[in-house]
Structures are given as structure tokens and as C-alpha cells.
Amino acid sequence: MKKAKYLLSISLLCLTIASCNSNNKTQNNNNYDSETIHQISLLQGLMLGDYYGSISVKELKQMGDTGIGTFDKLNGELIMTDGVVYRAKHDGTIEIVPDDELIPFSNVTKFDKDIEFETKEISNIDETLNTLTEKVNAKNSNQYYMVRIDGIFSKMNVRSELAQKEPYKPLVEVLKTDQTFFNYENIEGTVVALYMPPYMGNLNTTGWHLHFISKDKTKGGHVLDLSITSSKITMDQTNGFELYLPNGEFFKKLDLTVNQDDDIKEVEQGQ
Question: Exposure winner among 14, 50, 125, 174, fewest CB in 10 A?
Fold first, then answer.
């Protein structure tokens, strides 16, 4: 079955809308703009149980080389680094994902360096996010940022989740029973972090969303807490945003006017 998608492009200068599908993309030459965050579907749709993939891993890799997300059926956490798409499975292990697997939700970009600095001894996730937010506020908090934190982490707490079976439950209900937690100490690896400005609240979660993968590519997941021993932080500022909406029957029936702020906060914090 052909899965149609629609493309919403937002930049600081213009707003354009076009349509595309998996066999005939709007941008068919793979020359995706490196100054754009590409988003597959809405976090708000995922929250309501839309775990149906609408774009392939192969297509996602054409849009960017760095990002985060999840997989069809909510089958684990997606971490993309250096053009490779990894899955943090429900048991905490990592695998490289084949090109034909489908994606229901993701954010990716072609990563380049706009800000770079080093850190020492950051004790928790709140201090980490404060450090990142200070850089964003000094640069431009109304734009988008993809961030890499490459370092040694004295503490790394992550989660993943079990693949779901239809009929799909809302994400906040899934995580009451089907998320798994993993705690690591003195682990080296990479955090991929996404920043969304405050005005993006109806399309994604605003602020920060972090995923982790270990340097040896054996451990990872959605970051709940961390402590940094030392790190190099690289930030990519982008001024473009493209949204690809699914055209599946489940998405068509969603009421996306419902306020989900409390549920999103609960899901992000792993409670």
C-alpha cells in the first residue's frame, strides 16, 4: 500500500506546503538542505498511539545523518549518528536498523558545527540542559538545534520500550507497563539532543529531547538522567523546519486539538 505524506516547510522567512509520497518525493535529488530539521509526523500523534511507520529508514537517511525518533510499532528508540540508524531495543542492546524498516516519528538533520565547547563535571540532566539552554539563548532561542555530546558519563540512565501490538494504546499508557530502564556508570558515548523553540508546542515537545548510544554501540536509549565527567559538545543551529505528515487511516481520525502537555512531560521524564 502506498503511504502518502505531506510536507510542511517552515523557515524564518517563509511558509510553504507541498505534497509527496514514498515513491515520488518533493525533493527527489537527495539534496536536502543541511540547515533544516526534518520531522516525520507529530509527537502529539505518537502520544495518541500512531505507531504506524510512514517513511523508510532509507528515506530518512537521505534527509540527514544525525537525529532521534522511534520505529514502527514503537519498537525501540532511534539514534542516528554519522549517517547510521541504530535501535536501542527493549532489552537495552543496540542494533543497526535495515533500510526497509518504517519510521512513525523522527527528527533528523545534516549535522554541521556552529558552536563547540568542552565541559567538566556536570552532575545531572538539569545542569546539562541549563548549559545547553544558555548557549541557545545567547545564539537564538527561536531557531532549532541538533546537538552532540561526546564524552564520558559517570551516570547514564536511559529507557526503551517493547514493540506494541494492535490496537495501539496511547504512549502514556504503554509506558506504565512496557518501558524498561537501564543505569550505567562511567560509560563513554554520544548523546544526540534536539531543541525545539517554544512556539513548536503543537508539533513536538518544546525544549530538549535526548537519546544516548555508547561508543562501542552496545547500549543506549532515551535519556532520563546523566552526569558528565568530561565532554565535547557540538551544536548545529538550523533555521529551517520540514514536517512530513502521514496519510494513514489512524492519523486521519486523531483529535490533535487535545492538550497533551502533562502526558508529554510524564513520557519525557519516564514516570
Answer: 14
Q: Measured on CA atoms in the order 173, 87, 226, 260, is the torsion positive or negative?
A: negative
Q: How confident is the model at residue 32 (pLDDT cuts 50, 70, 90)?
A: confident
The total number of residues shown for the chain amounts to: 271
Strands (E), the chain: 4-11, 15-21, 36-40, 55-56, 66-70, 77-81, 84-88, 94-96, 102-103, 105-109, 115-122, 144-161, 179-196, 207-214, 220-238, 240-246
> How many alpha carbons fall within 13 Å on the CB side of residue 58?
7
Q: Give the pLDDT confidence score for residue 270 in this predicted structure.
A: 82
Place of cell 504503554: 174
Count of structural domains within the chain: 2
Q: Are residues 183 and 206 in the same domain?
A: yes
Separation CA 118–CA 127 (nearest Å):
14
- When pLDDT is cut at 50, 70 and 90, the band that residue 93 belongs to is very high
Task: Clarify whether residues 64 and 126 are in a common domain.
Answer: no
The CA distances from residue 160 to 86, 104, 212, 247, in Å, are 13, 16, 11, 27
105 located within any domain: yes
